[in-house]
């Protein structure tokens, strides 16, 4: 049997561009790139310098540590998270278990450690115009800071592992949530930008920031905006924005409302306005995440771009504070858009013909937009694009090591469902296939989400195509990017209803193709995609194989057992 053109070994050996940060002058991007270590046993991460003029990239850090999350200080020094060993004479045998903020001086030299949080740092930001550093870090709130590391070790070895729960959720993906005072929770901690003058701004926090907290620092370094969670109705979580005064530690809540979530807080350049993505849910109506501006002084809300029927993802403000750069789910792609905050008008930047998914968006001083871009056939890479309509993105460096595969053909197709709605789907197949192909229907999770023309490290269809399969990736009812009524079609107890009908319409269209072997079709999916695969197994015998991953099998037990 001949070697497939793409293998699992090749896939995991690719370098993974994970985050970027533009230098203050916009001349280059700091890019974090994951790679396998020398033993091929785990991933480590390096920082690269990628010029925005397209010239050659150079490596900034190297070794066996995880150098990630670059963020520039206002003087041009580069901050980043790392689990590298401290440079002091006294080594820390547990240093590799904790991330700290490190700094590469602007004029060169060895990295310097800025923080020494006992339990490590989760994320950090510098203020744009002030000597202020803010981190999110785990804290044992009943233990003095200089004794927390020892206390954590002792409790891990000797302490009770019991957790006390008074409300749901109790778990988020790979970690438990809790209200125990003797267990660590996320706190907001401020420093001066040289890593001195540590101050815990939320000493009494318990689980308010336990589920993927997001924050921003005001440009003047006087305030922090952080997502703040509280128990909502029907075992859901509501999220407001806590505005924390760094000097006084006073907290003012904005955006708080029942059945409402505020995400992705981002200060305008003048610090007077906060942009968020805000969504309200109900049992009858699906949420509609909307770009919303919050007046920092009064807490007043103003929706922007409500008429734009796609879900936006905040990237960055322009320097004049008049526009916001954002990505948006749209018909199986994530293009770049610019939103005028005064009129609410939305202008598309990257053309439809370019496809792809764009994220980590930042505005450079010259007005160009930088970010990370990927497609089905291109692993994530840093890019820049002019902030003008129909501007093609320019990939800056091929740091991933991935070659554009000419052995794959990708088709973007649409079929009418039973109610007349258009259902979009992608077909990926070997470009030179000579006979009808066995076919996988690959169903996305969510259910509210979208299969996008984007690279996926965990569920990558190229691995199946390389073994001679056609892979079909549909966007049935509930998928984002096709208008709010299309998303509404999955809301409520209708997971196996129109969504299933949409999937069968796609299956019918695919089975009728001459390049597909209709007797060798299978369905697979994870999470909600796994649920639908299970549901398919109760409704039809047309698929010869069903594969489910992290799926829902019993709706009555879903809420009490889910990890998310």
Tell me what the CATH architecture of the domain at 408-561 is. Answer: 3-Layer(aba) Sandwich
The top level CATH class name of the domain at 408-561? Alpha Beta
How much helix is in the residues? under 10%
The CATH homology group name of the domain at 408-561: Alpha/Beta hydrolase fold, catalytic domain
Instruction: Give the terminus-to-terminus CA distance.
Output: 42 Å
CATH topology of the domain at 408-561: Rossmann fold
Q: Evaluate the radius of gyration.
A: 24 Å
The residue ranges in which pLDDT falls below 50 over 5 or more consecutive positions are none
Major beta-sheet overview: 6 strands, mixed
Give the spatial strand order of the biggest sheet. Answer: 31-32-34-33-35-36
Number of helical stretches of at least 4 residues: 7
Average pLDDT level: 92
